[in-house]
Amino acid sequence: MNNCLFCKIINNEIPSEKVYSDEEIIAFKDINPQAPVHILVIPKKHIDGADVLEKEDAALAGRLLLTAARIAEQFHLSNGYRIVTNIGEHGGQTVRHLHFHLIGGEKLIDSF
Ligand code: AMP
Ligand code: ZN
Prior knowledge:
Order of helices and strands: HEEEHEHE
Low-confidence stretches: none
Helix content: 10-25%
Bound molecules: adenosine monophosphate, zinc ion
């Protein structure tokens, strides 16, 4: 059994406020936003994190970034924003399912 929180969100076993979905990717609002806009963009395929991306995942990884940028446009973040992915314990990754944070809507401080 896969006990991953984000896989449960993908499978609608845990509710989320989705803002985007396609065959490979979903995006939803972070439950604990660090800025006015804080969205998580994740692959439907379970990948632990950016550290274990394989060559075969290159197109998917690119699409995750592109999707984050398109969502930023939808949320009118034309003054700028941040896309972040945390990796492992020292990187502050608390959910071990690859995700890109899209953060914006105000001038961000240096550290996230
Ligand atoms: P990270 O610390 O980089 O692994 O990011 C995990 C993010 O998931 C955090 O910003 C959490 O606030 C967010 N999060 C945890 N549980 C949920 C949930 N049920 N729905 C939406 N976001 C969540
Ligand atoms: Zn997962």
